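Hi again,

Forgot to attach this to my earlier email, sorry! This is the prediction with zinc ion bound. I've pasted everything inline since the attachment limit keeps bouncing my files.
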Amino acid sequence: MKIVKISNKKPPQWILDAVNEKFGVEWKSSVIFTYGELITSYTGMMTEDLLAHEPHHTKQQKEFGGADKWWKEYLKNNQFRFEQELECYRKQYQWVKRNLKNRNEVFNCLMSYAHALSGKLYGEIISFNEALKQIKKINEENKNNTTSIRNATS
Ligand SMILES: [Zn+2]
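Structure tokens for the complex follow:
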């Protein structure tokens, strides 16, 4: 997967502090933060598939009434956080299905997204299998590309 250049400017400190306190994630662990138009990480880099994920948070924040308001809700409301992330992971998964030719690579992406969405970073709000099912959902509805888990593992 290609690496793309993003900002390495810190998002507001209160967000870093809250994310660190709640999820045990540090700025230097190179997690990507979206704050309005700012998409940033410690290294100033991210994998290309995140171009289908992070800018969607920008859009969500705009629609929700601003980045600060969105981040406050995101930090305190598990259901909200899950819904917002699920939308972005679905977009990201659709992107890899369209753009990566190698089925194993697509499958590995799906596994890592489900792992992330069910993991510590978002407060362990869903099981791995449920995350897997949810991320795939939209793709099962538009059957134009039929890579299923069964195909991908064989
Ligand atoms: Zn996200």
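The first helix runs from residue 13 to 23. The chain is about 55% helix and 10% strand.

That should be everything now.

G.
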